[in-house]
Design a protein that fits this description.
The chain is mainly alpha-helical. The protein is built from six helices and two strands. A two-stranded antiparallel sheet has the order 1-2. Keywords: Electron transport, Fatty acid biosynthesis, Fatty acid metabolism, Lipid biosynthesis, Lipid metabolism, Phosphopantetheine, Phosphoprotein, Respiratory chain, Transport.
Length: about 130
């Protein structure tokens, strides 16, 4: 998290303009300052830290196909773990754990609970900077 914050702050520029002195105390001081924050595009370093979505899709499908309790012939990008693949909630937790191992980062429980389809897993992993 600190690395992402550092990368963002590295590319954030704040312009402060001094205002002319005004004898009216309401228009003076910190209330009269205006800030214009301009975010430049992320550097290649930050852009390059996210995985390609098609690569993530292929790897997620591979992990799910190799899961012992699922039917590999039913695995598709839009497959729902419970409705289409017949996995129960414990199986889904095991799939998420296998995805954590495959991509080298821990998925927080509150996010893992939301992953119920292959597409949701792909979206979450592809948007996560720690995925490898």
């Amino acid at each position: 998290m600190a690395a992402v914050r550092g990368a963002l702050l590295k590319h954030l520029r704040v312009n402060a303009t001094a205002l002319p002195r005004n004898p009216n105390p309401i228009n003076n001081g910190i209330f009269a300052l205006t800030f214009n924050a301009i975010c430049r595009g992320f550097s290649d370093e930050v852009k390059g830290s996210f995985l390609d979505k098609s690569e993530v899709t292929d790897r997620v499908i591979s992990v799910v196909k190799n899961f012992q309790k699922g039917d590999p012939s039913k695995v598709a990008p839009d497959a729902h773990f419970q409705n289409d693949l017949g996995l129960d909630s414990l199986d889904t937790v095991e799939v998420v754990m296998a995805l954590e191992e495959e991509f080298g980062f821990e998925i927080p429980d509150n996010e893992a609970d939301k992953i119920s389809t292959i597409n949701l897993a792909v979206e979450f992993i592809a948007s996560h900077p720690q995925a490898k």
